[in-house]
Amino acid sequence: NIIPGIKVDKGTVVILGTDGETATQGLDGLGARCAEYYKAGARFAKWRAVLKIGNGLPSELSMIENAHGLARYASICQENGLVPIVEPEVLMDGPHDIETCAAASERVLATVYKALADHKVLLEGTLLKPNMITPGSESKQAVTPAEVAKYTVRTLQRHVPPAVPGITFLSGGQGEEEASIHLDALNKLPGKKPWSLTFSYGRALQQSCLKTWLGKPENVGKAQEALMHRAKANGYASLGKYDGGFPTLDLKKGALFEKGYVY
Prior knowledge:
This protein has 263 residues and is α/β, with parallel strands linked by helices. It is 41% helix and 13% strand. Helix 6 packs antiparallel against helix 7 (220-238).
């Protein structure tokens, strides 16, 4: 069964007095909109908060502002029967190493879950959509999938309560195969993981499909086949059973990265 959902935020604006940090808009009238979305058949929603690393970022102001927005959104969604996907994306832009990404992501998640608790959000009725812990896009540090898995799971173990049923990772500019391999490594890693670890990829799920389709009716069949290949690859990766081998047009590490990505 396919359960429909909807993105309910209205994009980001710069927070005055910060180094280009942003807050997400869309709380005004959200309750009424969520009620209409539920009537139309939606059963979950998504709200993306964006945080940066570098030169002391993310700032305390940025983390608090974005955590508050996510918590208010989640509370309003639940009030109207929608499951909120909570997405605090720590961007991979920059030259930082994997340890720096882990430290920043830990601070962000701690702030977000404090806000969710303050707003009495039912964690059992939420999903988390975080970034994986990787070096920055301009970093020269080489890491293995096992290292990405170790840092990512450690970060989650420290700050995501076991009441959260599922973690649906964003790809954040990773290549298609890269994102699948990292997800597989997360699920293969031994240790306590009380949440389902799965995917909510955009670019890393759709890129081969879109490049194959090119908007041409005669390419629809091959494009659907490309999408199915990536969906199957990530399905196996969600079980820790992906060994590669699924076709993709994008094997290059970080090939889908776009600085300051907005959608």
